[in-house]
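Problem: given the chain below (245 residues), write out its structure.
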Amino acid sequence: MRDDTERRSPGEKPDLDALIADMFGLNIRGIRTLVDLFVRPVNVFESARTFDWNSKYTPTMRLAFSFLTVFSLLSFFWAAEDGVLYQTLFDVFSDGFADRPEAPPVADWIKTMFAGYNFIYPFTYMLVHSLVGSCLLIWGNGTSWVARIRLYFCVASIGIAFSVLSIAVMPFISPSFMWTWTTMVLAIGFAAYLLTYGRGMRGRFTLWGRLWRAILLAITVTLTDFIVAIIAGTAAGSWAEFRLA
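Solution.
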């Protein structure tokens, strides 16, 4: 695999890196960006303030959307009929639809709702988080709104990466453990937001200055995640009702 900053000769045949980019929109440069966000986030944060990311990193908005695409591609994990999420929602909506004779079959409703959610969620996530990120003034004086969005997604991308990884565990979770697992994932994501901001902004604020800003950012990203899920879920549910009416 080669870095996408390397010059490609005309007519060069596609390689493994090109195949990975075809499948997931990622390449070795994107993987290096993610690794550095975990290992040395200050380097990525500083590059986010330059025009071209120092020709070293993948723009974090693109990285986040790539992870969201992977999330959608892995829907056979989290939306499978024998999966914990499907079974949990089936039980919930079976009770809710019991008093609605006109309601569609629960299985059909969930299947259609999942399909709509799978399509709506990535775009809703990018739009809502971009708006929030552009308004969050915790990056230091003189930081442009574009840089604020870039830096915000430096942190948000970590949470998306954890969410994608958590999907692989879902087939092994029982319905009774669903909410405990969800709480654990949220707690890990919250801690990751704190640490990524605190380490990425090293040298720009005092320890206390970084701490309260990191807490504010972690709360903001977590609440925005909930808002995105509610918007996407409501829209997907309305779509299912419309399709199955």
